[in-house]
Amino acid sequence: MSKEIRINAFLAFAPTHLSPGLWAHPRDRALDYNSLSLWTDLARTAERGGYDALFFADGISQYDVYGGSNAAGVRWGLQFPRLDPLLLVSAMAQVTEHLGFAVTSSVSYEAPFLFARRMSTLDHLTRGRIGWNIVTSFGQSGSRAIGQPDARPHDERYDLADEYMEIVYRLWEESWQDGAAVRDRDTRVFADPARVHEIRHEGRFFSMQGTHYSEPSPQRTPLLYQAGTSRRGKDFAARHAECVFLSSPTAQLVARDVADVRARAAALGRDPASVLFFALATVIVAPTSEEAQAKWQDIQRHVSLEGALALFSRWSGIDLSKYSPDDPLRYVKSEGMQSAIEAFTVADPERVWTIGELAIFNAIGGKGPVFIGSPTEVADALESWKAQTGIDGFNLSHALLPGTHEDFVDLVVPELRRRGVYKQDYRAGTLREKLYGEGHAHLSAPHPAASHRAATIEEPDHA
Ligand SMILES: Cc1cc2nc3c(=O)[nH]c(=O)nc-3n(C[C@H](O)[C@H](O)[C@H](O)COP(=O)(O)O)c2cc1C
Fold this sequence. Notes:
Layout: E1 6-11, H1 36-48, E2 53-56, H2 71-76, H3 89-94, E3 100-106, H4 112-125, E4 130-135, H5 140-145, H6 154-174, E5 198-202, E6 207-211, E7 223-227, H7 231-240, E8 243-246, H8 251-267, E9 276-285, H9 289-300, H10 305-316, H11 338-343, H12 355-362, E10 370-373, H13 375-389, E11 393-397, H14 403-418, H15 431-436, H16 448-458
Parallel strand pairs: 1-2, 1-11, 2-3, 3-4, 4-7, 7-8, 8-9, 9-10, 9-11
Antiparallel strand pairs: 5-6
The structure holds flavin mononucleotide.
Flavin mononucleotide (FMN) binds near residues 137, 138, 229, 337 and 338.
């Protein structure tokens, strides 16, 4: 396992992501979430700090489980309003050279053909720095909003996702052969029709016929992230994901999931070390321990515990407004994010969480740990988590935006660099090459995307 610690910023294009209430803090800029400069400034800071990517969560379902309505979600601005992160990427790419951009998009809402074109567009415009966090979406309000029947049952969503992947792989990898866009001024041929192919698909969930509307982009298939750690979610990750995002409160749970997904990937013939893991964490750092503790106390005074419970209610599918703070949290099977409720119940039989404890824990940075301390203490904690779990790095959430990231870049990154566990500079090339090295611009066998590409190269279709 590499010693290198990788860092992404974990974000939402919204006033609140995972630290409810903090947009009201006097040093927070999240109320400017709908202005470009907040994000272009953040992108520059992240690149100065050698982050691999800005990772945007996304979704269109309301936070309406808590109290049976979206009132708390609206009042606190809980990931609502939320704008489309794909539309932010070009501006941030323009002010950076190396930083990657991972955007979440659901397989439940948009035809694969349209989505494949939008990702190819971003891969062209970022010169190969785009990633996709593949999600399946479980909120009923999102389905209703786009006129679909209720969200599908949990495992069926993953069946649909497998089929969706098959189609987008074929569009990205198979529809245009290498060299098809000849762009020849002399012969006045833009693209060779013999090397551009229509894709036809008839399946259980999708039926389509079309030629990819983008010539091959630098990565073809964007770098693939996945989050979702039910059994079915892990099988999906093992098959498709290059990077897996985990969010659990303890190192033990993260270690269990890392080992499990790597074993499943190995069983499918993939190199388990090629699946990179990022764990959710939030860092509150200051030059000294005491100052960091004071910063944390100050942040605590601004958090919304109601907001934290409303977030968790949506993830778990349990209306936590019905309980008092001293009630224990119990496992309930839901059609939502099974890993969320499991992490705080059956996964750790040693610990019974009360609703009040859960609210306090979740109020800063959601379900992941919060590391508070001096640069040395934080670097120790990050190194220790990495060693205990086998992860490759962290998706860092924030308390204050952009202050939490500015602190990390100014205080923790130099300490990690001094220890030799953090990149001094970016590698050349696409996002995939920055993570995997030269020659890895495209997915290669035995990843399922690569099989489509090989097929067209060996057997050109002249239809
Ligand atoms: C860490 C993490 C981050 C997620 N981020 C998103 C997101 O941004 N948008 C979304 O619609 N779903 C998101 N999901 C939901 C998953 O895509 C999936 O629908 C859900 O977790 C249920 O699958 P599971 O039971 O396998 O975890 C996330 C899940 C996890 C665990």
